[in-house]
Amino acid sequence: MADNASQISRISDNYIAEKVSATVHGEYSKLRPSSKPVIKSNSVPEWTVLAGIIAINNETGEFETIAITTGVKATPDADLDRSQGKIIHDCHAEILALRCFNIFLLDTINRISNHDGTSKFVQVTKTNSYEWNKKWDLALYISKLPCGDASMDDLMKVGDTAEFEITDDNPLQYIDPKNKTTIRGRLNYKKRDVIRTKPGRYDSKITLSKSCTDKLCMKQVMGILDSTCSLLMKDPIFLQYIIIPRISGKESILKHAFIDRLRGGNFPVQEFKFISCENHFIDDNHDTTIVREPALVNSIKIFMDNNRVMEQSIINGVKNGFYSKPKKPLRKNCEPIISRYSKWNLLKQIEFNRAELLNVSYLEFKSTLTKRMTLQQEVRSLLSPDGWITTKKDDC
Ligand SMILES: [Zn+2]
């Protein structure tokens, strides 16, 4: 990673951070009102997390926005029964941004494979596979430290920890009492070096999605391609930069959460370069003197490679306006463009003549990516030696 990043000799890390932050904030201001937090009927304003993926040309210094996203919600595991790949499990902004990047790639490859133009980001290889143009580095902007290990110290500073003050011997913090390396949300908040599920109110229905720190940490080994894109791309793709407001002085926390936890693994790690930017995001909750509630709406906006723009807002894991109560069936066309269902169909459309994709389900296909599964298993066992608690099986 360091080699790649150092090729941008003319522009400093500080310039990159400020330019990325200003670009993502600028795009946020152009989102539809229905994609943003609101002031609720009781006059309480909502807050959210903003994320964005920006490509930076390491030869020319150009910046291109690939996606911006907002969101702080995750779907309870119990509500995934009817999903069949259509409900988004994890709507935290940084995770949505990575999903958007994969849809951006699938859409680009679909276009190239139909001889509908070329791409400055993706090239066809001699073996008819695809590869990322290495002139483009990738930066992930996040408006605050990701949930999980990396942000637990901030929680201590805010002082709102009473609810999470439980000790190692309290079984409440575990999802499975036999698994002491996976902790529910922010419980036992002083503990480190554990996998945490997404934070949520303790009285709410449980989500088993892992914290953003845990998911991002793994991307330094696995790269940011999902299963569908891994099939199409020759090599993995890694993020070069993560840019977050006001993280100067937090280097040791980030090192602990992202680097030290991966030590001892028998695999290469492409470390992120964290850079601090100055300005807070306008709809963040950093000002603790203002009471705010987490936004219900999550949103995505993808800037496709041929100037098409896709914007969708997502509530309860489905497209805004398409929600139905958990006992009822899902509505037709409720799936967001970044859903597993949409990605799987797009992959089958691109690879319509690949025999191994015919008559198998998404999860059956995923299990055939054995190299990827083995590596994932190795990283998981390192991060949570007591085992990996998965979300509900969601196949299509
Ligand atoms: Zn998160």
From TrEMBL:
GO terms for molecular function: RNA binding; tRNA-specific adenosine-37 deaminase activity. This is A to I editase domain-containing protein. Pfam families: A_deamin (PF02137). Signal peptide: none annotated. GO terms for biological process: tRNA wobble adenosine to inosine editing. PANTHER family: TRNA-SPECIFIC ADENOSINE DEAMINASE 1. InterPro entries: A_deamin, Tad1. It comes from the Eukaryota. Residues 67-286 form the A to I editase domain. SMART domains: ADEAMc (SM00552).
